[in-house]
Specification:
339 residues; alpha/beta; D-Maltodextrin-Binding Protein, domain 2; five-stranded mixed sheet; 15 helices; globular
Length: 339
Amino acid sequence: MNTEYSSLPRRSLLRAASAMALGSTVPGLAFSQAKGDTAQAQWPDKPVHIYVAGPAGGSADVVARALSDQINRTAKQPFIVEPKPGAAGVIAVNDLLQAPVDPYTLMVGVSSIVSEIPHIVKMRHDTRKAIMPLAELARGGIVLVAAPDLPVKSLKDVIALSKSSKQGLSYASYSPGTMSHVAGLILGQASGARLEHVAYKGSTAGLNDVMGSHIPLMFDGLATSLPFIQSGKIRAIAITSPQRSPLLPDVPTFQELGFPQLTYTGWMGLWCNSALPAEKQLMIQKLVHQAMDAPAFKTVLGNAGFESGTHRDSPSLRTELLADYDRVGKVLQGVDVRI
């Protein structure tokens, strides 16, 4: 028996049943439904935690802070950004899925957390099913950069230099399993370049070693490498986006250089636990899309080398992720890269 109703006197129950039959409202019962509607309308009524699948200062962190800064201008409760670096974003995913299933714990991370990383990194959860993309916050390609004293000026030079050495050339990635890693594999397969992967925990450490000439090459996100390219501390060789970046108009695309298989634009997304009810997912999407439309948000992204995301819904984002997962799987067939 429902204990909420069993505690009412019999006459009250009869009156309630009669009122319901007549289509009327029973004050005590209507309050419960109204309370639920009010709670949803007032979200957030406590701080919202945004886990970042990457280190502080990385591309995901830049996007997460731009989003939280925009939302915090109008929200009654703060959106708190919490970087969780390590294990190619797996730590952030695990923490998201261990948190209560509610709209107060979310995650910002790159699309490769579903499309690429599971092929290479052993994961506790199947991210194709366990997490849901709520919004495409920003899009961007990655750029191949070289150490300042590396004797190359073009991609052709990089390929030739790698072939001329028995050891080849090492290239850094900001995390194993990401496009930063996979791009080097694709370039090696397509060109015959001898490239040896070295994984780093985030862009900062890898870029420091490239600037210090401890490692010759790196595939990195434009947001983190752009300041060092502009200051001349590293040299940009080529970019994976379909068109040249307006921030680096002299840097060619891989497609221009004859490598269309390296045309790639990943996106940075806001994610939740897939078990979160659909109405709450839509509630979050509405607020986030409003923030994405703000000129200030778009300016921050543009200055960091990102394109603004679109208002695509979760099903279309998920369809793209699954297609990319299959595509990357075919690229990696026969390559022993699982860690």
